[in-house]
Amino acid sequence: MKRAAWPPAPRLEPPPDGSPYWAPEETLEPEARRAIVLEKLRGQLEYCWKRSPLYRRLWTDAGVAPDDLRELSDLARFPFLMKQALRDDQLANPPFGSNVCCDPGQIARINGSSGTTGRPTIFVLSRGDWARIGAAHARIMWGFGVRPGDTLFIGSYFSLYLGSWGALAGAEVLGAGALPFGAGVPGQTERALELIDAVRPTVFYGTPSYALHLARAAESAGFDSADLGFRVMFFSGEPGAGIPSTKHRIEELFGAACIDTGSMAEMTPWMTNAECAERTGMHLWEDIVYTEIVDPADGRPLEGDGEGVPVYTHLERTSQPMIRLYSGDVTYVTSEPCSCGRTYRRLPRGVYGRVDDMLIVRGVNVYPSAIEDALAHVSGVGSEYRIVLERPEELDVLTLRIEAADPGASDLVRDSVKRATGITPVVEVLPPATLPTTEFKSRRVEDRRHGAAKTVPVELVPQPRR
Questions:
Q1: pLDDT at residue 441 in the model
Q2: Which in 136, 296, 397, 434 has the greatest CB count within 10 A?
Q3: Distances (CA, A) of 322 to 84, 165, 169, 356
Q4: b/e string for 85-101 if b means 16 or more Cβ within 10 A?
Q5: Distance between CA atoms of 183 and 158, rounded to whole angstroms?
Q6: Parallel/antiparallel/unpaired status of strands 364-366 and 359-361
Q7: Burial 330-354, CB ≥16 within 10 A → b, else e
Q8: Pairing mode, if any, of strands 443-447 and 454-457?
Q9: Preceding peptide of 244 cis, ω within 30°
Q10: pLDDT tens per residue across span 24-51
Q11: Does CATH place domain 359-457 in 3.30.110.30?
Q12: Count of CA atoms in the C-beta half-sphere (13 A) of 440
């Protein structure tokens, strides 16, 4: 049988019949879709073998080659690609590393990581890849309810960060209008409210932290955030949209559907982890980016439902393709069907932890988002908080700084957090509006136990089921 062309041509048109499904792959039986994934994966691996010194070196050292991929489970024989290896490769082969793969004349965009966990990684994207990324994002946005008549307000940085650019690319392919407002300039939120009130966009993209900040600013300016007109709000950059209490709060404040999306910037099209309009957890859109969930203890792919680490593999990338990129995130995957009719596996609790950022307090694994969820169940407690970890003598002390008008809230917070985590915190109650407002990626953990104080990005959400 003749192999399908690789890379595939992007689907640039919405379904003509108004179907909720942009592509037939979305509702295929899983085995039928696995055959499509395997065919794409063979093309991707052969391309990398021919064009990427990085992969030739990694795979030769591991004793594998593209011909060893006879079935999808054979992918587990190939080594993980770690983010540090990408950084080291770019340092050794500046500026882009030895995994560019496409010709220099095909490079259309140069972006990069935020650099919050180390030296920023530089990404190059070919023109063909950017077209496929836009088509993939349009397809996924269609799946959570965006349509050509909508206008998308983008309240996130336009910089090296790929999130905003990816949202804009999806809107353009889908045929929706776009208001690429940006973020990060003093006074910009007040200006945003004026434009939102004038233009009346129906879809919002940003971080959950910024949406909550926008709601606070709207209240101060005399607006009701539920009257701003948003119908769909989708988020990436931090996992708040996957925290049940935060999701509910955003939906209650804005009267809009809160959609959780996002994998890793390196894995753009990053929307291939994304909820549908039913909002039952992020689908893994596996015919665009193939995702394994592996056991963090031994690295073996899970069979069936369970908790593990997502490992991502591009299927359609000609520039800097990622093969088995180890995310370091922690999630729970299920094959239980979604009422939307798509047959993809789902992450019903989103991404709720990191292998390397989980806090261990007195031998107990504590996910900061579990604390956030516990706080949300206490009436009168503000959305800003700080977690401070210290070890004054032999035992760890977790101090929780919260905002509340009633000093008596400390007892309720202490009990709620203890029920959620098993740890009894010291609770300090501060007057409302005391703590600095977090607008973008939340940094609310300060660990003082190991010498110099350091802040940790809060990229962790509800405590996993054990």
A1: 53
A2: 136
A3: 13, 19, 21, 21
A4: bbbebbeeeeebbebbb
A5: 8
A6: antiparallel
A7: bbbbbeeebebebbbbbbbbbbbbb
A8: antiparallel
A9: no
A10: 999 999 999 999 999 999 999 999 999 9
A11: no
A12: 14
